[in-house]
Amino acid sequence: MKKTSELPWASGPGEILRHGLSLLSRDTDTNRRLAMISIDNAVELMTKTYLGLPKRITGLSIPRKEYNDIAESFPALLDGLEKYAPDKLDGIDLGTIEWYHRLRNELYHQGNGLTVERDKVEIYAELANLMFKNLFGEELVPHATPATELLGEFMATWVSIERVMYRLAELTYPNRQEGQRINIGPISSFLARDKTLDKSLASEIDQLRQIRNQIVHGVSDYKSIVTADLMKNMQRVLAALEKKLSSLGEKEN
Question: From CA 187, how far away is CA 132, in angstroms rounded?
Fold first, then answer.
C-alpha cells in the first residue's frame, strides 16, 4: 500500500522521496542517477518547507528576510537548520548531507557517462528518510530490500543512542550555555572522564560511531557490516545507556 503523509505540508517532499526510491526497482545507471537527484531534491524541499512553516507549528521564529536568504541555496538551508532547529539533527551529519548534495550536482551537471553506486543512493535515501522523520514525525519511505531495512534499523538505533547521550550530557554538564548542543563525537570520552559512563561502554559507543561514519561516508559496504549481531550489540549498548540515564534521573529527583 502506498503510504502518504497526513501532514499537508509534508506531502510534496514525501512524494519526491518515494519517487526517488521507486526508481531503484529497476537498477540501471540512469535510474540510479535520477534516484540520487530526486532524493536530493526531496532533502532540499523538506528543509525549505520545515523552516518556512508558521511559528505555531514549529515554534521557530525566523525573520522573513532571513528565511528568503536561507532559501536561496542548499548550504544556506543546512546552515539555517543547524541554527534554528539543532534538535532535529539527531543522527544527521550535515557535512555528509552536503557531500551527497555535491555528488548529486556532479551527476546533474555532468551526467553523461557518470554513474553512482547503488549503495550510495540507498544510504542517501535512508538519511533522507531519517531527516523526514525528524522534521515531520513520520517515516515515509518503505525500505527497498531487507538489507536497507536493516540499515534503516541501524540508523534509527544510532539516533536513539545519540539522544540518550545528549540527555546524559545535559545532566552531567548542567552549567553549559542554554541551547548549546555538545558535539556528539567526543561526548562518550567526556562522560567517561567524568565517570558518568564506564570506559568500556564509552569505547563501544566510539566504535559504533566509527562504523556509522564509515557507512554514511561510503568507506565500507554496509551490507557486510550491518548484521543481526551488530544490531543486538547496539540494542545492548542502548539499554545500558537508558539504565544509566534512569539512575541519574532518580538521583536528580
Answer: 25
105: number of Cβ within 10 Å:
13
Taking only the tens place, the pLDDT of each residue in 105-156 is 887 776 555 678 888 888 898 889 889 989 998 776 665 556 677 888 898 8
Min mean pLDDT across 22-26, 42-46, 75-79 is at 22-26
Q: What is the pLDDT of residues 48-105, one digit of tens each?
A: 999 999 999 999 999 999 999 999 999 999 999 999 998 898 888 888 899 999 888 8
CA atoms within 13 A on the CB side of 43: 31
Are 59 and 48 spatial neighbours (Cβ–Cβ below 8 Å)? no
pTM: 0.73
Q: At what angle do helices 74-84 and 29-52 cross, to 10 degrees?
A: 50
User: In angstroms, rounded to a whole number, what is the distance separating the alpha carbons of residues 36 and 70?
Assistant: 23
On whether the CB atoms of residues 6 and 111 are closer than 8 A, the answer is no
Question: Coil, strand or helix: which one is 2?
Answer: coil
**Alpha-carbon dihedral 161, 167, 168, 172, rounded to 10 degrees:** 150
* Cell output for 236: 545492548
In this structure, what C-alpha cell is assigned to residue 253?
A: 529527583
State the first-to-last Cα distance of the chain, in angstroms, to the nearest integer. 46
> b or e along 35-66 (b: 16 or more beta carbons within 10 Å of the residue's beta carbon)?
bbbbbbbbbbbbbbbbbbbeeeebebebeeee
> Which distant-in-sequence residues (6+ apart) come within 8 Å of 116 by Cβ?
32, 33, 36, 103, 107
Residue 249 has pLDDT above 60, yes or no: yes
